[in-house]
Amino acid sequence: MADGLNPRTRMLLEAPIAPTLLRLAAPNVLVMLAQAGVGLIETYFVGQLGTNALAGMALVFPVVMLMQMTSAGAMGGGIASAIARALGARRRDDADALVLHALAIAAVFSLVFTAGVVGGGRWLYTRMGGTGGALDAALVYSNWVFAGAFLVWLFNTLSAVIRGTGNMAVPAYVTVLGALVLVPLSPLLIFGWGPVPGLGIAGGAIALMAYYLVGSLVLAAYLWSPCSLLQPSFTHIRFRWMLFKDILRVGLVGTVSTVATNLSIGVTTALVGGFGTAAIAGYGTASRLEYLLVPLVFGLGAPLVAMVGTCIGAGQRERALRATWIGAAMAFVMAESIGLWAAAFPHAWLSLFNSDPAMLEAGALYLRSVGPVYGFFGLGLVLYFASQGAGRLLWPVIGNIVRLAVAVSGGWLALRWGGGLAAVFAAQGVALVSYGLVNAWAIAGGAWFGPVGWPRSTAGLLRRMPQT
């Protein structure tokens, strides 16, 4: 390494874009599938406890995903982006120091989630339409999960640190192996067996927290081993505001976007709540497929954060833009394929979790209405991740706010004008299309570096772009 570049960093800067993204995304998609599978496994077993339990999980799910997406996607993206840009600019000492700054941020944010949700859960879930047995189930599950919020933040922060170096394999292995352990552990704690008592819906939450605890220990062991590209140290700790700022300027803006996404789902859940518990269960189960797209697109978006961030740090703006559009095309095709399948065969998904006819009817209506435009959700989301790598998140946030405004106002007007569930769900579809188009229009119009569009050549790009 005569020029001081690590081989992994050189790969992000010089290797062919599409094959490199696919190669890095393969283990990352696997890790995200496994992590999504963790939630689906839990939902399947909780669904066997009845419609109230399933509706209870549906009430809690947007809040759990808010924490997941904030820790892994928003703040995690800020962490990975900061580390990638530091390595691309050959600021190795800063990259090492960013690890402890990231852990400090995780500790503070996890405390906020624990205090806010454990203290205000009943108020929140009641406003979302929770009553009776569904509300009781929601509170039991929520209190267990958010009491252990630090474990979720720790796991996702350590994963983001490692991914920021371009290493997607280690988080993948840890998550997949953890999911394999969770498969027997979750039903064991939910239903009991032999001397182990059944804990009901609380057992699912406890199993999930055990998964995050063990995974965090393994990731930490790797990060502090000689195998790791980074070498963080707890000796002579000196926090620097500039390093916090490097993470937070991307992570906090991304958090606004994440809140808007989950607030859209949460408000829609409240609107659907007027049609009864079965409707909440149906919408909550169907919208889990949309949440499944998040980790799938994140599987592609995480290496895109590393590649775009490293290229920006090294001054390779054209390559950063080309990687972004290639990743956007991949994400659109993947998400649209899943959405079309769900719209054509909604019961294939819904019946995995429950057989209540009213639940199936509501869930199928949602998937037929929104599934055909899932590609725009994938497009908007992957451009959000690419913007994290570039450290330019204003327009992705605006895109998410537009989505929230369309979903909430459209759903409210649908009910006011007597449109029923079909009209509420149609508004969600229009909101997703708006989200994808706003993000694509902004980046194509030069939201990162000015109005450069799609450069025809490196020379043309360099003539038209402001230089750093």
Automatic annotation (TrEMBL):
Transmembrane segments: 21-41, 53-86, 98-118, 138-158, 170-193, 199-225, 246-272, 292-313, 325-345, 365-386, 393-415, 421-449
Chief location of this protein within or outside the cell: membrane
GO molecular function: antiporter activity; xenobiotic transmembrane transporter activity
Any single Gene Ontology cellular-component annotation: plasma membrane
Pfam families reported in the protein's UniProt record: MatE
Keyword Plastid: no
Membrane disposition: Multi-pass membrane protein
Keywords (A to Z) from UniProt: Cell membrane, Membrane, Transmembrane, Transmembrane helix, Transport
Subcellular location: Cell inner membrane
InterPro entries the UniProt entry points to: MATE_fam, MdtK-like, Membrane_Transporter-Flippase
NCBIfam families: matE (TIGR00797)
Protein name: MATE family efflux transporter
Species assigned in the record: Acidovorax carolinensis
Lineage: Bacteria, Pseudomonadati, Pseudomonadota, Betaproteobacteria, Burkholderiales
